[in-house]
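We close this part of the discussion by returning to an individual protein. Part of our work consisted of pairing the sequence of a single chain with a tokenised description of its backbone. What the numbers capture is local backbone geometry rather than side-chain detail. The amino acid sequence and the backbone structure tokens for this protein are reproduced below.
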Amino acid sequence: MIELEHQAHEFAKQLTETVQFVAGPDTPGFAATAVLELNMFRVAQVPESGVVLCDETGPLLRLAVEYMCTWDGYERYLAVDRSKIHVFVEPNGRQPLFRYEFDRRTTDALPSAHIHFHGEHSELEAAMRACGESTARAKRRRRGKTKSLLTDLHFPVGGTRFRPCLEDVMQMVIEEFGITPRGGPVATTYRQLAERREHWRRLQIATSVRDAPATAARVLILQRHSRGLVLVDLSGDVGSAGG
């Protein structure tokens, strides 16, 4: 548990650096808090006032971010068990505009990594009510036992290994909503986010290699034969905040 705590605190530190670079140094940082009954650490802002993003005139959006972290399947590296990145209007937004969520314990019927969109779409909701009955979820809608709402749909994004990370969401809201980064010009911020995103992706690749070492070895052997590359020793430890 001590080593897990260390990795959780390091993960919280990385998140703090990312959000403060974009939203400013006054943005509350992240901390890791033990949830003993679950054998997990909750990584969230303290206090939980949200990541407030502004343009030149004032606040526009607020991000509510939370991760529940535990050991990976090998009980060696930190893994994200559940996460949420909810985007609200600021100030006083009460219902999210959209929600990026991940739950690695989700049943096979629903995507573990998904987006929920909030709003109304009359044609889509009519289609949901007029759906077939091949699954229990659709059947409940068809028979009126559950409401047919846009917010209830799980739009898949990237799966367990290659789901969007916080840096993806932050770059998207900068680009689409004209957020003014506090750490420097937009181009500089994008480079900073790209470096952190690359770190996240490489951790996910390392986790995928541990999940399927035979496949990874086969690809490297094919690369060596086709391009004359020299295989390198990949046995060294690589940390993870994967799923």
Summary: The two ends are 18 Å apart (CA to CA). The first strand starts at residue 30 and ends at 35. The chain has one domain: 2-104+160-227.
